[in-house]
UniProtKB/TrEMBL annotation:
Protein name (Swiss-Prot/TrEMBL): Dethiobiotin synthetase
Lineage top rank: taxon: Bacteria
GO annotation, cellular component aspect: cytosol
UniProt-listed Gene3D superfamilies: 3.40.50.450
Amino acid sequence: MVIQVSVCGPRDCTSEDESNAREVGRLLAERGAVVICGGYTGVMAAVAAGARSAGGTVVGILSRADRQDANPDLSIVIPTGVGEARNGIIVNSADAVIVIGGSWGTLSELALAMRRGLTPVVQLGGWRILDRDGRPLPGVEHASTPEEALARTGLWPGR
């Protein structure tokens, strides 16, 4: 079965987040992974563009019930009409979740992935989730580069 990696991040992202997302998409495609994302702008558009530039497959899980405003770099568009509930679909479809940048929607995806507890969750930039004593919460792997983010998923050992 092909590896599926969900990449989550905000519509309104920084140029660094956009660059990281594009590189993550490219690296995932080079490894033969299917990229799953929210299918719109920002980090979602950048990861899709990166994956497509390397010949990869990108699935966009849209919040709306139509394809309007879907990113043109998507290989497959799935309009759900379920709004933010689509975040659960994105997370549940993944063998690993890579979170790039931060926003409230991105935080919900990270929380859903952590609560599910079945897949590695890697954060590249963005918000830090701390416990009440100011320590990073266990379970979220932190990466400083796209290459490290893929390595921390554990999906490609020895690479």
